Each structure stands twice: as structure tokens, then as C-alpha cells.
Amino acid sequence: MPSEPNSPEILTTQILGNVFIACIVLSNVPYFYKIEKTRDVGQFNIYPFVFMIGQAMMWVVYSMICNIEGIVPVNTFGMLFDLAFILIFISACKDLAVKRKVMISLMIELIVLVSFVAIVVFQAPKDMHQTILGWATSILLVAFFFSPVLNFYSMFKKRTTGSLSLPLSVTSILAGVAFGLYGVFLEDNFITVSNFSGCVSGIIQIIFYYIMKLVIRISPPKLESQNIYNDNVDKDEKHCYHHPSQELLLFCEDCKEKACYSCVVNKKNHRGHNLDLLEINDIEINNKEKEKEKKEKEEKEKEEKENQIKNEQKNNDFELDVESNV
Fold first, then answer.
1. How many helices (H) and strands (E) in the chain?
2. Cα–Cα separations (whole angstroms), residue 309 to 187, 295, 296, 303
3. How much is the average pLDDT of 170-174?
């Protein structure tokens, strides 16, 4: 028999679950503050946040239809923050194609989910609402929890722990336990199973994190893979690989590599080398070179045009001579 909604165990697990999930959501604030401050998105992947809006919205719908108030606040909170993060990303992104993809992805996701909910509510039998929505929300949440596992192979190849964070994994486990127990006390298998999957995912990530630390110690990555700027070695490249909107205006004399201002922002160095080793390509010099190239091109075009006119004149003169002789 499920516990009373105001019982101590229900309230305790509900509050703890909300606090832990709120901490996970707020852990992303520094990343987006940096994006807002630098106005550069770099290679940041915004699509997990697009996905999170959908799964948070589905949990809000599920909880309202099934009259489970405990998971409404945190999912509403997460949905609003994720939307704010996406808006910051779109406003800072300078690539119009990327902006369109993000907005179209979000629009398609919302249209599909709203249509799905409408079909379930208006077409399915009322006693099936909880089952259908429960399965849908559980699948989305399990997919979200286990999405980092998809990057394990790539991280292993590169000998890196990637974006894995121990505090975040531990918080994910605690949130999973809290809401998993909340589901147990409510006797709601969908909440229980989907949230306990978060515990399993967090444990797997922690185990993989320490395995990778051991692998890196035994078989460290090659020197070039440690160099996060090695993509900027190409002399013909004008824009930074890691910050596509930024021009490569810096050159480190020590490591013979190019960099943009975003590569060295707040670091005051390039790969540990002092900033005085950075030779700044003056923008004015670049502009002068561009103007010079433009002038040379114009002169060349003018010369070609003059030669063409001369040739035409010669042809006309020749034709006149021929006619006069005839």
C-alpha cells in the first residue's frame, strides 16, 4: 500500500530529490556564464539540453495527469533553466546554420511530444494514460542517464576522462536514490525504475573514470593528443578550430602554433608558455595587406582590360586596312 502524500518518508525523499536535481541543473551555470561573457560557443554541444527540455516536460505532464506533485517543481525548474541555456547559446552563436538547427530541433521535439500527449489524452482510454505516459517518460529518462556511456569508446581511444565529473556523478547517484525511494513509497514503478537507472549510470561512470585514470597512467596519450591546439598548425587556416568564430591572430614562438584570443582568455598563457612569447599579428597590418592585395588585383584587372581594348583596336585597324586595300 502506498504511503500517505504527507508522510515523513515521502516528504524527505521528495525534498532531497528536488535539491540534488537542482544542483545538477545549476552545475551548468558556469559554462553558460562563460559563453555569455565571451560571446563564443566554441564546440559546445547544446543538443543534450534540447533533449532535457523534452524529458522534463514529459515528467511534468505525467505528474499532473497522475496527480504526483513531488516531481513537478524540479522538472519545471529544469525545463526553464534549460530553455534559458539554449537562448544564451543561440544569442552567442555566430553561425546562422547552427542556430537554425538548434531552433528546428527544439521545435520538432516540442511538436512531436505535444502531439503524442494530445493523442494519449484524447484518444487512449483513461485507465491507460498513466501506463503509456509512464513508459514514455521512463524511456526518455533512462536514455538521458545512459547517454554519457556512448562516449566511453571515444574517451578510451583518446585516453581522456572527457567531460566526466565525479561530483556530478555522485550527485546523480544521490538524486537517483532519493527519487527512486520516492517512487517505492508511492508504489510507482515508472518513477522507481527510471530513477534507480540514474544510480546505475552514475556508478558505471565513476568506475569508468577510475579505470581511465589507471589506463592513462599505464599508457599515457601521445604528445600530440595532449596538445589541444594541434588543430591550428595548418598555416593556411584563418579561423580557430576550437573557436570557429575567432580569427587566429596569435602565434606562439615557443611551440610554433597559432591560437585565437579565446584560447588564452583568463589563462594569460598558451599551453604553459608565457604571453610574452606570443607574437600578435596586428590587425592593422592584416588590413593593410588585404588592401594591398585588393589594389594589386584591381591593377591586374585594369591592365587586362586595357590589353583587351588594345587588341580589339588592333583588330579593328587591321579590318579597316583590309577593306581599304580591297
1. 12, 5
2. 91, 21, 20, 10
3. 90
Instruction: Report the amino acid identity of residue 324.
Output: S
Which residues, including other chains, have CB under 8 Å from residue 179's CB and lie 6 or more apart? Answer: 13, 17, 21, 71, 191, 195, 198
Which are the contacts of 308, defined by CB distance < 8 A and separation ≥ 6? Answer: none
Query: What residue type is assigned to position 219 of the chain?
Result: S
- CA-CA distances (angstroms) from residue 72 to 17, 122, 160, 177, 199? 11, 22, 37, 18, 21
| Residues 251-277 pLDDT 10s | 665 666 677 766 665 555 555 555 444
Any bridge partners for residue 252, and if so which?
A: 257, 278
Q: What φ, ψ does residue 6 adopt, rounded to 5°? A: -100, 15
| E strands, the chain, in order | 250-252, 257-259, 269-270, 273-274, 278-280
Q: Which residues fall within 8 angstroms of residue 14, CB to CB, at 6 or more apart?
A: 70, 182
Written as nine digits, the cell of 88 is 544564451
pLDDT band for 34, please (50, 70, 90 cuts).
Answer: confident
Q: Which residues touch 123 (CB under 8 Å, ≥6 apart)? A: none
Closest CA to 59 of 21, 27, 4: 21
Closest Cα to residue 231, out of 210, 212, 258, 209?
A: 258
**Sign of the CA dihedral running 26, 28, 33, 36:** negative
Residues 6+ apart with CB under 8 A from 70: 10, 14, 17, 18, 63, 182, 186
Handedness of CA 258, 263, 268, 274 (dihedral sign): negative
d(CA 192, CA 143): 15
Torsion angles phi and psi, residue 94, rounded to 5: -95, -10
Tens of pLDDT, residue by residue over 55-68, are 999 999 999 888 88
Q: Give the integer Cα–Cα distance in Å for 271 and 254.
A: 10
Which three cell numbers, joined as nine digits, stand for 127? 485507465
Q: How far apart are CA 111 and CA 118, in angstroms?
A: 10
Looking at 8-70, which runs of residues are DSSP E strands? Answer: none
All three cell numbers of 19? 535539491
